[in-house]
């Protein structure tokens, strides 16, 4: 069982480490878009796409960087009491709080799946079966949702990316849960 736990932790941590390291560079993409936005507004006609594209890049940066942040322990914590606790007490506290986080992320994931199904033209009550049907080819995409702005980009790509990011974050939370279990059993991770 411990070998399976270590294998899961290693695989999930490796995937999220790579994705997080790549997502890190999204800040430079965001800076480039905002720089172009400033230049085009100052010297040329303002670009219609820069504001929304900056928002999309920021969402991707934030969502794909979340699992990496949890893995590195750089997420925000109230360190007033936590810093003074023993490793065992921290593990118990983290064990409980990560379960609450997993529940919250599962609710967000379901909402993201529903929202993505809507943006792909589905108005029914079974969004997960619709998305599964799209993946296996039994369902067809309906009228695609677009942004109401002048640029009018499709919304489904960023919503699909949010689903991927939330799923990776849930996997990382399970990894952290298993790390806490192993710490409580006396292993040093």
Report on the structure:
It comes from Shimia litoralis. Its main location: membrane. Pfam families: DctQ. Belongs to the TRAP transporter small permease family. By secondary structure, this protein is mainly α. The chain has one domain. The chain is built from seven helices and no strands. 74% of the residues lie in helices and 0% in strands. Helix 1 runs antiparallel to helix 3.
Domain tally:
1
Low-confidence stretches: none
Helix content: over 70%
Average pLDDT works out at 91
Radius of gyration: 20 Å
Biggest sheet layout: none
- Number-wise, the strands total 0
Mass-distribution shape: globular
Number of helices: 7
Distance between the termini: 16 Å
Give, in order, the helices and strands: HHHHHHH
Structural class: mainly alpha
- Percentage of residues in strands: under 5%
Offer a few descriptive terms.
mainly alpha; 0% strand; single chain; 74% helix; globular; 189 residues; 7 helices
Short description:
The chain is mainly alpha-helical and 189 residues long.
Please specify the SSE layout and strand pairing:
Blueprint: H1 2-23, H2 26-43, H3 50-72, H4 79-82, H5 87-119, H6 127-136, H7 156-184
């Amino acid at each position: 069982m411990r070998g399976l736990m270590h294998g899961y932790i290693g695989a999930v941590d490796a995937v999220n480490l790579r994705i997080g390291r790549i997502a890190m560079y999204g800040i430079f993409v965001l800076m480039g878009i905002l720089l172009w936005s400033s230049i085009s507004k100052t010297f040329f006609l303002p670009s219609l796409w820069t504001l929304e594209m900056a928002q999309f890049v920021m969402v991707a940066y934030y969502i794909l960087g979340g699992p990496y942040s949890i893995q590195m322990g750089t997420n925000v914590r109230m360190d007033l009491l936590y810093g003074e606790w023993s490793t065992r007490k921290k593990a118990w506290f983290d064990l409980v709080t990560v379960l609450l986080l997993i529940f919250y992320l599962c609710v967000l994931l379901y909402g993201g799946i529903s929202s993505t199904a809507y943006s792909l033209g589905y108005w029914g009550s079974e969004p997960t079966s619709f998305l599964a049907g799209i993946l296996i080819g039994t369902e067809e995409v309906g009228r695609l949702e677009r942004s109401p702005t002048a640029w009018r980009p499709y919304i489904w790509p960023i919503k699909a990316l949010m689903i991927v990011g939330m799923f990776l974050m849930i996997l990382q939370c399970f990894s952290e849960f298993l790390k806490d279990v192993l710490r409580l059993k006396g292993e040093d991770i």
